[in-house]
Amino acid sequence: MLQVEARVRVLPGAALIFMLFAPTVNGQTHESRGAAGGLFGVGQTWDDEGSIGTGAVIGGRVEWRVFGTTAVEFSIDVLSHDREGQFFEANGHTAFTGVSLLHRFGSSAAQPYVLGGLHLATHSGSTRFEDLRVERTSTDFGYHFGGGIGFGVGNRLEIGPEVRFYMIQPENGSDPATAYWIGGRLGIRF
Fold first, then answer.
1. Tell me, which fold does domain 2-189 have in CATH?
2. Are the C-beta atoms of residues 105 and 115 closer than 8 Å to each other?
3. What is the full per-residue pLDDT of the chain (190 aa) written as tens digits?
4. Taking a C-beta distance cutoff of 8 angstroms, is the pair 77, 55 a contact?
5. What secondary structure does DSSP assign to 56-70, as a single string?
6. In the 8-state DSSP scheme, what is residue 29?
7. Cβ–Cβ < 8 Å for 63, 72
8. Which phi and psi (to 5°) does residue 121 adopt?
9. Each residue of 6-41: b (16+ CB within 10 Å) or e?
10. Do 61 and 40 meet the contact criterion of CB atoms below 8 Å apart?
11. Could you give the CA distance from residue 73 to residue 101 in angstroms, rounded to a whole number?
């Protein structure tokens, strides 16, 4: 009698586990042509002398598979920065409009990937050093690289962490020279 009761208690748990993981198994066989999604996270921005602050990042991207597990990705990310201090403060944001090659490894429900590409960094912000305040806007070119892991959930949904590093070629020393962010990515495969 105890063995029958134990089996009856295990069945709902086993059914729940099967329902949670069955969509992931289905996601392994879906061959997608591309994906569209967004991300959110936190990052940090530097000029040529040091950090000009940390802030939130929000972005969107579309990728299109060109061959095998390699895709071309178009992205727009906006990274804010804010630094408060007695003698120095800075705040503003930088929009990164980029194109990347993104390569995924494997065909399982968890796909690591790496990416690299070029971007246009459009910055708007202000800095204050003691009593001198400067407002700046700039548009500069650069390159970026990064990576992450995409976890398939069901046939179409993908979630996972991502990190990107931006190297910028500023014309002015007070404009952003480097930045990075780490965030969570949510996408829909098509």
1. Porin (2.40.160)
2. no
3. 444 344 445 444 444 443 444 343 333 434 789 999 999 999 999 999 999 999 999 999 999 999 999 999 999 999 999 999 989 999 999 999 999 999 999 878 899 999 999 999 999 999 998 889 999 999 999 999 999 999 999 889 999 999 999 999 999 888 999 999 999 999 999 9
4. no
5. EEEEEEEEEEEETTE
6. H
7. yes
8. -105, 115
9. eeeeeeeeeeeeeeeeeebeebeeeebebbebbbeb
10. no
11. 6
The rounded distance, in Å, linking the Cα atoms of 117 and 108 is 25
Pairing of strands 157-168, 132-153: antiparallel
Q: How far is CA 131 from CA 66, 88, 93, 160, in A?
A: 53, 9, 22, 44
Provide the whole-model pTM. Answer: 0.81
SS (H, E, C) 94-105: EEEEEEEEEEEC
Q: Which of 151, 69, 142 is nearest to 102 (CA)?
A: 69
List the domain boundaries for the chain: 2-189
